[in-house]
Each structure stands twice: as C-alpha cells, then as structure tokens.
Amino acid sequence: MQIEIDLSNAGALTNLMVNRGARDLSRQSPVKLDESLILPCLHEKRKPIPPAYQLSQVAKCFSEPRGNWWLTIGTMYDEDLALTIANGIMLQAMSLQGGNPPFMWPLYGGTYDKLRDKEEFRQGIGGVGLLLLTNLAENSSREKLEKARDLLAMYGHIPRVLVVSGADPLAFSLNQLHATPTRVLYVGRNAKAKRRQI
After folding, report:
1. What CA–CA distance (Å, rounded) separates 185 from 55?
2. How far is it, in rounded angstroms, from Cα 160 to Cα 8?
3. What gap in Å lies between CA 194 and CA 8, rounded to an integer?
4. CA atoms of 174 and 192, how far apart (whole Å)
5. pLDDT digits 0-9 by tens, 75-102
6. Please, what sign has the CA dihedral across residues 25, 27, 32, 36?
7. CA proximity to 7, closest of 38, 129, 159, 18
8. Secondary structure (3-state) at 64
C-alpha cells in the first residue's frame, strides 16, 4: 500500500488552507508514504504496531476524514514529512463537499491558549470539522501538554490529528497525555533519506 501526497495539487484550496492555519505548504515536497518510511510503535505495555497496520489506518484518515477518530503522528528527525502528512489529510477533508472545514493550530507555552480559552476566537473561526494540533515535542512543557489534552477533549466529537516530534506517537500519547489515540503513525528516522518525488 502507498499513499501519495502532493500539496501542489491544492490549487484554489491553498489560500483557504493557509487561512485555516496550514503551515509551510511551499516547503513540503511531494511524498509517497509507504512502509519503508514507518517504524513500528513500541510500548512496554502494548503489542508493537507494525508499519503495515499503521499505513492502513492512515489510509482511512485520507478516505474518511470525518468521524471522531484521533491520529497521533510521531517523528524522529523529519517534522516536515509529518506536517506534509497532516496537511495532506487537511487537504483531503477540504476537498470533500459539506461539513465544517479543518483547522490547524500550533500549541505554545504558557497557561493561555486562545483556541481553548477564548470563546470569541472560536466563534470567529467558525465550525471546525477536523482539528490538527502541531508544535508538540517529547520535552514539551506541562502547560503545553495540558492544552493538548484539553483541546483533544473539547473537540472529541470530530477527527483530530496531533503532530509530535522526537517521540513514538503511541508512547507519547499514553505517557504524556494519559490517553490512547485511535490511530498512530511513526515516521522513521530514515524517512528524509528515503523520501521520493512523485
């Protein structure tokens, strides 16, 4: 199985994606996501999740970007690839007719978060059909992790994508967020070297 992601095909949706928080679209190269770019997810209390299964679950995020699933994308050394995958899911959700558009939101330090804490801001962005949270890492602050937990719960009725750098996505979700994602994707350390142009 292989998932092709080419953000240059966004066309008229590019501006809408940027207005809804998508980042670094011009820097992200087309990719062919396959098992060679994925590491098994490991956790001492869980069975390993093999690359083939992870890929099949991510394919469902592209084919059905609705529902109430939660995908955590973890990456060791290629956050650009993780963002490309997240933006690809965002583009797919925007390409479908009907429903509220996706929204991408970077998490920062401190105790205040505008998306979580300011109702006027939430009203201003309108409905959210898919929430993508970025700017998390293995060593993120307690406040940032709390914001992630709160937003994942607040938007538990829609699909959520969480991008975390420097961590196995399953271990990060279980150990840092104390919750179990519906789907995980662990982009391996050799992903940048193996990335191929479409």
Report:
1. 7
2. 23
3. 20
4. 27
5. 987 788 899 999 999 999 988 867 789 9
6. negative
7. 18
8. coil
